[in-house]
Design brief:
The chain has 502 residues and is an alpha/beta fold. It has four domains: 7-144, no CATH class; 151-221, no CATH class; 226-280, no CATH class; 310-494, Uracil-DNA Glycosylase, subunit E. It contains 18 helices and 14 strands. The chain has helices at 7-12, 22-34, 87-96, 104-116, 128-150, 176-187, 226-236, 244-250, 253-256, 265-279, 297-300, 345-350, 357-369, 401-418, 428-435, 442-445, 463-468, 472-492; strands spanning 17-18, 44-45, 154-155, 165-168, 192-195, 200-203, 208-211, 336-340, 376-380, 387-390, 393-396, 422-426, 450-452, 455-460. The strands form four sheets. The protein has a five-stranded mixed beta sheet. The protein has a five-stranded mixed beta sheet with strand order 9-8-12-14-13, with helices on both faces. Bound molecules: uracil. The site of uracil has 11 residues, from loops.
Length: 502
């Protein structure tokens, strides 16, 4: 708002409030609420002048004043404390702000005004305004989804200079910024541009540039990128996550023929069913000998630096089958660190370690040992879920030594940051990882703490062992071993490395 003046200055000057972005609207709305300015006293304007896509929605009341003579917030108007708006409502308002309806800013202000006056039902779909708000949010999310799915990049000849890939799209709502973020995370360092009738975004490999409209229509973009598109599509298609019926709901088969990838989708689905689920995108992106890909691999797979973020890790192949990498969690300077094996099914989906059945058992062990789990840093030797299909289920598969070694890179980083005094290795994989050798056994290490590379290492069972060992006595015994190990870890916090453990 800085160049246009504050909301109350604009109102005092008899101008409608000119708002272009959600941040500007939020700042103006805050000021108006503080000055107790009712929605009907404000006239909003926006550069966009499209039609109302929600014609079934109740039209907004026209401002009751003439914009040349608006009620002005008096300098001595009562000031209210700035409103506290819950995150959930703010998120909805932010999404709805991308919806191209002519009265969007006025409508959002009416919602927040009502909410601030205690009419919290305004956030409910049962309320008339609430229903419209929900419909706007839904339309915006749908448009984001469609844009992710239907954008088609075309490759330009290298001699034409950047951007290397260009795409044209005519979005129905203002979702270009968030869609650009999606493609930044997908396209690596290669330069690209997405042009729309209202604006364009250009990614130069490092920075996103927003510009006004640069291209008038799709004919302005050269259609040379089909081969690249097929490669891109193959590389983002993850057979492990394929749900064919959902896919067909999103892109009905009759539309496939109009999509460049239409000709490869049926083949990829049948490959997924035949076993590509096991190999994920690996085969498809041509890393194996003998695989044919339609363009040079260096174009399709631009070189990447060593990962600085766990999610970018390609140090072994497990990333291809997992939903996401799962890092450790807990206090930054925890004195005890639990190291498990690898995320399980639930951890893979939620992105947090030990939240499934093994995690619940770990909670019970902590409770029985009298140690607050919240004080412990919890992580895994391997950060991606390794699994094999069994019917509809994903069954845990023990990581190989080379995967444990590859992932030690991340465990080392965690150890260097947290600097725990004691590491509790939960099971054999964790033990091999923290001892940096495959020549150790759980049996020989149980109950025998060692001081290694600056930390005490206490070895105990993995919680899954306690869950699946047959027989109540054996279960109870294994549970007790875990409790005793944690108590020992706690005692070691105050022991010098030279002192032999009790
Ligand atoms: N098993 C593990 O080893 N780690 C988890 O995070 C969950 C189950």
């Amino acid at each position: 708002m800085s160049t246009k003046g504050s909301a109350s200055e604009q109102l005092r000057a008899g101008q409608p409030l000119l708002v272009e972005t959600f941040a500007e609207w939020r700042e103006a709305a805050r000021e108006l609420l503080v000055h107790d300015v009712p929605p009907e006293a404000v006239s909003w304007s926006t550069p966009y002048a499209g039609g109302d896509l929600f014609s079934g929605a109740p039209p907004m009341a026209e401002p009751t004043h003439n914009s040349s003579n608006p009620p002005q917030p008096a300098p001595d108007a009562p000031r209210h404390p700035p409103p506290h708006v819950p995150r959930s409502l703010m998120d909805m308002l932010q999404s709805a702000a991308c919806c191209r309806v002519p009265d969007r800013w006025a409508f959002l202000y009416r919602v927040i005004w009502r909410w601030q006056r205690g009419e919290h039902e305004v956030q409910s779909p049962a309320d008339e305004d609430g229903a419209r708000l929900h419909a706007m949010v839904k339309a915006v999310h749908r448009e984001e989804h469609d844009m992710h799915a239907y954008i088609r990049f075309r490759e330009r000849p290298p001699e034409a200079g950047p951007p290397r890939f260009v795409a044209w799209y005519e979005p129905q709502h203002d979702v270009l910024p968030q869609v650009a973020e999606h493609f930044i995370s997908r396209m690596g360092k290669v330069s690209w541009m997405i042009a729309t009738p209202e604006a364009s975004v250009l990614w130069d490999g490092h920075t996103l540039h927003n510009t006004g409209p640069l291209v008038k229509n799709s004919e302005d973009l050269e259609d040379t990128g089909e081969a690249l598109w097929l490669t891109y599509y193959r590389s983002v298609f993850n057979p492990a996550r394929l749900n064919q019926s959902v896919m067909q709901q999103h892109i009905p088969s009759h539309r496939w023929k109009n999509l460049p990838e239409g000709k490869i989708v049926p083949q990829m689905i049948s490959e997924a069913a035949r076993g590509a689920r096991k190999t994920g995108q690996y085969e498809a992106v041509g890393q194996r000998k003998g695989t044919t890909i339609p363009i040079a691999p260096e174009d399709a797979q631009p070189e990447r630096q060593q990962p600085s973020k766990l999610d970018e890790c390609r140090r072994c192949e497990l990333w291809q089958f997992a939903t996401q990498a799962v890092g450790g969690e807990g206090p930054k300077k925890a004195k005890i660190m639990f190291v498990g094996e690898q995320p399980g099914d639930q951890e893979d989906l939620t992105g947090q370690p030990f939240v499934g059945p093994a995690g619940k058992l770990l909670d019970r062990v902590c409770e029985a040992a009298g140690v607050d789990r919240e004080t412990i840093y919890v992580t895994n030797a391997v950060k991606h879920f390794k699994w094999e299909p069994r019917g509809k289920r994903r069954l845990h598969k023990t990581p190989a030594q080379k995967e444990i070694e590859a992932c030690h890179y991340w465990l080392e980083k965690e150890l260097a940051h947290v600097k725990p005094t004691v590491i509790v290795a939960l099971g054999a994989t964790a033990l091999k990882s923290v001892m940096r050798t495959a020549n150790v056994t759980l049996k020989n290490s149980l109950g025998k703490p060692v001081f290694h590379e600056g930390h005490w290492i206490v070895t105990t069972y993995h919680p899954s062992y306690v869950l699946r060992v047959p027989g109540e006595d054996a279960k109870h015994e294994a549970f007790q071993v875990m409790v005793d190990s944690l108590k020992l870890a706690h005692d070691l916090l105050n022991r010098q490395p030279e002192e032999p453990p009790a």
